[in-house]
Amino acid sequence: MKSMTGYGSAEELHEEFQLSVELKSYNSRYLEINHNIPFYLAPFEIEIDDELKKIASRGHVEVNIRIKTLASDMEIVVDKLAVKRYAEAFSQIAALSGKALKPKLADFIGSEGVLTSVRPSDSEIYRASLFSTLAKALEQFDQSKEREGSHTKADLKKMGEIVRESHAIIASHADELDEMVKNNVRARFDEMLSDQNYDENRILSEVAVLLIKYSVNEEIKRLDVHLKEFFNLLEQNEPVGKRLDFLCQEMHREINTIGSKSQMVEMNLQVVRMKDGLENIREQIRNIE
After folding, report:
1. What CATH architecture does domain 6-72+123-144 belong to?
2. Which has the closest alpha carbon to 93: 83, 104, 102?
3. Are 136 and 11 in contact (CB under 8 A)?
4. What are the φ and ψ backbone dihedral angles of 256, each rounded to 5 degrees?
5. What are the domain boundaries of the chain?
6. Which of 120, 134, 208, 285 is deepest in the core (most CB within 10 A)?
């Protein structure tokens, strides 16, 4: 089991540059990858995402990549045509003004467009370093997600046991609830009819209707199946967050139905306990893949 929350970072130092990779992830319904990288590394985005998808299946992941240049790779380009045009312009100025004008080298150097600085943007020179650094960061990122996931799994098991204990207590009172319904019906009929003769079959039919209405045996059985599947999913080595979320919805429905049918204080107390435990479970599973 993995958490959607994770962190990993790594860096490599070369003679020409220093490259660092930082990965952070948060809760999200789907897998969302946000890139914060230099423009010249954009061609690698798809490959970076492919590597990430091997580790994360859900969550909002931030990919931060920084490159610091240690040895300048800047090139200075002289625009020959611009120099020629400036020389012609200086000559025209001299002719129009009627004064001798001998432009100095600084006049050309300080003119706009004569000198241009250019940095090579060949992304392939970073490929090997980028993906080796990314691999180290991903390893740390994966370990972080697994470590957080193991803590969440322990909490889910603990809260699942609370629900299972309350389920067992409710199941032990199911027959008692049925008997209570029968006795209540008989008592009410005795009260209404007093000494008059009445039809026993009618009472039984009324009891049968009320048992169908108030019996929680079916809900107890379904909840038992859901609990077994819950603990089974916790042991799976694959993303189970969405399935657990759906399972919790089904468990919540059964618990609510038991609460609406129950007429026993003992059962009602356990229903409240199960609802509390299930709500805590639903909070936790929002953070797992």
Report:
1. 2-Layer Sandwich (3.30)
2. 102
3. no
4. -60, -40
5. 6-72+123-144, 75-118, 149-285
6. 134
Strands across the sheet with 59-69, in order? 6-13, 17-26, 59-69, 31-36
Q: Is 233 exposed, middle or buried (0-12, 13-18, 19+ CB in 10 A)?
A: middle
State pTM to two decimals. Answer: 0.70
Question: Phi and psi for 204 in degrees, rounded to 5?
Answer: -65, -40
For helices 174-193 and 127-172, angle between their N-to-C axes, nearest 10 degrees: 40
- pLDDT tens, per residue, the chain with 289 residues: 899 999 999 999 988 889 999 999 999 888 999 999 998 899 999 999 999 999 999 999 999 999 988 766 667 788 888 888 888 888 888 888 877 778 888 877 888 888 776 666 678 888 999 999 999 999 999 999 999 999 999 999 999 999 999 999 988 888 787 677 677 766 766 665 655 666 666 666 766 666 666 678 889 999 999 999 999 999 988 889 999 999 999 999 999 998 888 778 888 899 999 999 999 999 999 889 8
Residues 6+ apart with CB under 8 A from 260: none
Residue with tokens 């199960």: 274
Report yes or no: 58 and 289 within 8 Å, Cβ to Cβ. Answer: yes
The CA angle 195-199-202, to the nearest 5 degrees, is 130
CATH class of 149-285: mainly alpha
Distance, CA of 251 to CA of 259 (rounded, Å): 12
Question: Which H or E run includes 13?
Answer: strand 6-13
Evaluate the CA torsion angle 192, 195, 196, 200 in order and state its sign: positive
